[in-house]
Amino acid sequence: MRLLNHNRNKQFFFFISLLIFSGLFLSGCSQKQEKVYHVGILSGLDYFSDIADSFKEEMTTLGYIEGVNIIYDLQKTNFEPDREKQILRKFVEDDVDLILVFPTEASLAAKEATEGTDIPVLFASAFTEGTDLIVSISQPGGHITGVRYPGTDVAVRRLEILHEIMPNAKRVWLPFQEGYPAVPSELELIRPVAESLEITLIEFPANNLAHLQEELENRAESENFDFDAVLYIPESLSTTQFVFELIANFTRERNIPVMGTKILTDDYGTVFGVTTNNQDFGVLAAPIADKILKGIPAGTIPVVSPESYLIVNYKVAQELGIKVPEGLLAMADEIIREES
Questions:
Q1: Would you state the CATH architecture of domain 152-275+309-336?
Q2: Which residues contact 223 (CB under 8 A, 6 or more apart)?
Q3: pTM for this model (two decimals)
Q4: Which tens digit of pLDDT belongs to each residue from 272-310?
Q5: In CATH, what class is 37-149+277-300?
Q6: Of the candidates 291, 249, 288, which has an alpha carbon nearest to the alpha carbon of residue 268?
Q7: Torsion angle in degrees (nearest 10) through CA of 171, 172, 178, 180
């Protein structure tokens, strides 16, 4: 009888041990089989490179731990279309689970590079107006979606605030990159606004930096600077530091304010900027990436836009003798004042 009980106890403990071992084995298999996602990130312009940082931070809050269940291949270029194509081809060859790309030009290249594949593309800070990046905001189509730059809205707001700050400004010089895809849509909206405000827009489509420099040199020689202010609209020139430095050299001597975007050089800068926060693009892109990685087709996920914000350089305004309305200062998200 004692022997029989002993055998039963042995069988019982063997059974329990088997269950524990099986549980550990299955748990181990589950951990080994956990998906590790590979995300290729292409930053096509230095100005926007911090989008990747906020994206990765937000992905961490969503449970994607770098080196554990997600791997990022971050590549950076700066006005290098050929290199961008090489990087995108490598992403396709590696069969990444997702491509995050910004801004507009790199996003268009990513869409083209992934044609015929099932690799989803998530763009950020890209213009959708005037491009074939998406079909529509609500249904972007194909295998692409993202976070758009609200260019047309920002362009109108910049002109309205210029008028609010300088109601007597009647002639505004408007330089922009010739052929930039977003410009026609922006001009279509701001032209009637300018007319209603009795502002004449002196549009200058620049072929390149040399063309812009030649135009300013010609105006300087002939003293033909018959405009009251310079306005940037959202396009490639407005994100380029050396372009602003070129324009600043011309305008500063003549006490002509530059407005629209936020740019500083030494102790001089634009009077105000209406723009977006780069980090917001990364934060907004992360939840979309999460949906895509969980199996939702990218082309069915609506495109989103960040809020724009207003920054006033009160220091520069004072130097130029411009009185910024108190109501506008109260609305500003950031004010740069004279250092104490």
A1: 3-Layer(aba) Sandwich (3.40)
A2: none
A3: 0.82
A4: 999 999 999 999 999 999 999 999 999 999 999 999 999
A5: alpha beta
A6: 249
A7: -130
